Amino acid sequence: MFTIKELQNKIDLTLSAQKFEGNPPLLYEPIKYTLSQGGKRLRPLLTLLACDLFDGNIENAVYPAIGLEIFHNFTLLHDDIMDKAPIRRGKETVYKKWNTNIAILSGDTMFALAYEFMLNTDNKVIPQILPVLNQTAREVCEGQQFDMDFETQDNVSIADYIEMIRLKTAVLLGGSLKIGALIGGATPENADYLYNFGINIGLAFQLKDDLLDVFSDVEKFGKMTGGDILTNKKTFLYLKAYELAKNEELQNLNYYFNLPESEGTQKINGVKSVYNTLNIEQLTVDEMKNYYDLALLEFDKINISEDKKQNLLDFAKLLMDRES
Amino acid sequence: MFTIKELQNKIDLTLSAQKFEGNPPLLYEPIKYTLSQGGKRLRPLLTLLACDLFDGNIENAVYPAIGLEIFHNFTLLHDDIMDKAPIRRGKETVYKKWNTNIAILSGDTMFALAYEFMLNTDNKVIPQILPVLNQTAREVCEGQQFDMDFETQDNVSIADYIEMIRLKTAVLLGGSLKIGALIGGATPENADYLYNFGINIGLAFQLKDDLLDVFSDVEKFGKMTGGDILTNKKTFLYLKAYELAKNEELQNLNYYFNLPESEGTQKINGVKSVYNTLNIEQLTVDEMKNYYDLALLEFDKINISEDKKQNLLDFAKLLMDRES
Fold first, then answer.
1. CA distance linking residue B269 with residue A287, whole number of Å
2. Which residue of chain A is at minimal alpha-carbon distance from B74?
3. Is the whole model's pTM more than 0.90, yes or no?
4. Which CATH class is domain A187-324?
5. Among A37, A72, A234, B107, which residue's beta carbon has the most beta carbons within 10 A?
6. What distance in Å separates the CA atoms of residue A307 and residue A65, rounded to the nearest whole number?
7. Residue B27: which of A107, A116, A145 has the nearest Cβ?
8. What ipTM score was computed for the predicted complex, to two decimals?
9. Do B105 and A137 touch (CB under 8 A)?
10. What is the pLDDT of residues B201-224, one digit of tens each?
11. Which value, to the nearest 10 degrees, does the dihedral of the CA atoms of residues A61, A65, A66, A71 take?
């Protein structure tokens, strides 16, 4: 078994050994730029942890793992065009630095590259792991479309929101684990339990993201908080507040969410004070814990010795306790 | 062996049996719309012809064949955004009918769908055929980027142009044939000969397209001619004319290409008269025949009986002789 640190090193070394160069340069430079911006490398780490959980050879999993990181970065690249996001990880986004056409096309190329990396493994698992990526890719697109639809939709329920983040975020975490498990030789049942673990961890992970955006310590978080409030994003916190707010609280919520971005400080503080009155932080933590517990129940079903399970359990806990 | 007509029917029936429905509707409606616009269905036909050439079971090839058609339509969908093309096959393009974000995302979903269809075949050929699609997909993106680069580039040579159309158009024809051949049980050598046949047919096919845009009979062509001249597109005809034009012809070429689109008739007629003086139509036909002959040389190397080869030879001839 490997430590988390060893697996992270394996990913960093393999990724930094890739050239991502080619012709025409305007197609490949944005790819190199995107993949050298850092990031948590969460998805490839899940793939290697899953492979290692079943005593698989991580050499067979490392290229598919990198493929999943490339796929994830492709989705971010296209999302940034759609969301008109100027900055990602502190740097200009590709469509801002170059232009929309180049961002569309270098994104498409990354999607193809993701599949190239996926094939660099044992031939006999290819027909098992590719359907996982295919389904995941389609569902991530569905999630992004739901997210865009919600912007102009008035009647978004919390159930709708959970389904959206399942598709947009959780399935790729589940898929990364399942692909690693299959490469590692897991039975289909164990691979599915791990997938379900990943889905629930993914939901909890996104709820934690929603929380951090509002309630984190700015210094530890590393970026401005309140961005979701500023843009009236329909997060779990927003939807829960609207579910609970009555009378004066409802008026206040409407008042502050209708303030323009130019009155940002007043808007953020106003919404946060309603959230505090309604106990939204604790309710979100409870919901997060709920999915975390569901994840652990799924993990329990996996039929292998407990000592092998410790790495993934530690890592899941780390994701829940993170402050950025 | 099947007739071309039987294979075309197989493709049409299989494609029209697909639902392409799902949630959210804004993601799937553009996919259904795109795939119901018709088109020559050239790429899936090449896949089935290639499978049949080697006495393969076309049931194993028909879903990958549809996958290649979906992939092709995905590239058109994204290209239309980049090229700001309002009309395709007589209908509004997706980004015009819906919007750019929806066109980006439904295109991405089609890319994932293409891979889903590709896996619906005999498991043992999957590790052979997927690298062909991966390489093809990346090269098609490279071709589109070169094409966009050429718009603002002054020193495009005919060799540059041929390399661009090899990537943008020919590799997908070659790839469709190779995938069909591999599913049909061809040896790697025979599959590669067929790929090279497809590359050369693809180059000839694109030169024919360039020719038809300028010199076709409008009624048979089914749409306006001269579009490439109007937009100063650097086609084989344009580049050959600039290679040959001297003195007065060069002045005329510059004069007419510098006319605005609003003086379309004068612009098209002026450029065509220079093309006629320089014998550009015949020179393009010669170049086309040159690639067609190279294609036949590659086809000759395929080690199977001559009677089985007739279908593909007939079809290649049809592509060269087409009037639209």
1. 70
2. A108
3. yes
4. mainly alpha
5. B107
6. 24
7. A145
8. 0.96
9. no
10. 999 999 999 999 999 877 777 777
11. 140
